[in-house]
UniProtKB/TrEMBL annotation:
Member of a network of 50S ribosomal subunit biogenesis factors which assembles along the 30S-50S interface, preventing incorrect 23S rRNA structures from forming. Promotes peptidyl transferase center (PTC) maturation. GO terms for cellular component: cytosol. This is Dual-action ribosomal maturation protein DarP. Residues 1-20 are annotated as: Disordered. Belongs to the DarP family. It is found in: Cytoplasm. It comes from the Bacteria. Its main location: cytoplasm. HAMAP family: DarP (MF_00765). Keywords: Cytoplasm, Ribosome biogenesis, RNA-binding, rRNA-binding. It comes from Marinobacter lutaoensis. One of its GO terms (biological process) is assembly of large subunit precursor of preribosome. Residues 1-11 have a biased composition (Acidic residues).
């Protein structure tokens, strides 16, 4: 008589049914969070066209049971074709209270301070960090923010520079 509780057979069993269900529910929750995003935010996530179409389709479904079934479908697409960790990082970046959002916010603040205090050398370093940034626009924003700082005025130029830096940082990471 064979005892299936031996260690050599435990490796062949794989994850338990409960573990598989927990993973499935976690993927459905990722899909549910994607439904709340705007179109621009959804476009910035690293997802396939099939998943994007499924999310857009799910937004228009109003019946509870149909929506539940469609979330199962989104979870299946996430499980089979996507990188859920990358999508979750992207979703966390949109959450105002998340650690990733806070980290990017502080990074943009540090770059703004460096750009205003150091000028062109810091602009060159930021261009190395974010090659997709528009150099001329960045220099113009930096120059205007420096003028405000020198005159001790607040015309909103530092805020404009900060917003542009946030956009650039979001494209890098």
């Amino acid at each position: 008589m064979t005892d299936y509780q031996d260690d050599e057979y435990q490796d062949d069993l794989g994850p338990s049914k409960s573990q598989l269900k927990r993973e499935m529910l976690a993927l459905q929750e990722v899909g549910r969070r994607m439904l709340d995003l705007s179109d621009e935010q959804l476009d910035s996530l690293p997802i396939s066209d099939r998943l994007r179409a499924a999310v857009v389709e799910s937004r228009r479904i109003r019946k509870h049971e149909a929506r539940r079934r469609h979330l199962h479908y989104i979870g299946k697409v996430l499980r089979s074709e996507e990188d859920p960790e990358a999508i979750e990082r992207g979703l966390d970046a949109f959450d105002a209270g998340s650690a990733e959002h806070t980290r990017r916010h502080h990074l943009a603040e540090r770059w703004r301070e460096r750009l205003v205090t150091e000028g062109d050398p810091a602009v060159a370093e930021f261009i190395d960090y974010c090659p997709s940034a528009d150099i001329q626009h960045l220099r113009n924003l930096t120059r205007n923010a420096r003028k405000d700082a020198e005159k001790q005025k607040n015309t909103g130029q530092a805020r404009k520079l900060f917003r542009y830096l946030r956009e650039c940082i979001d494209t890098v990471e």
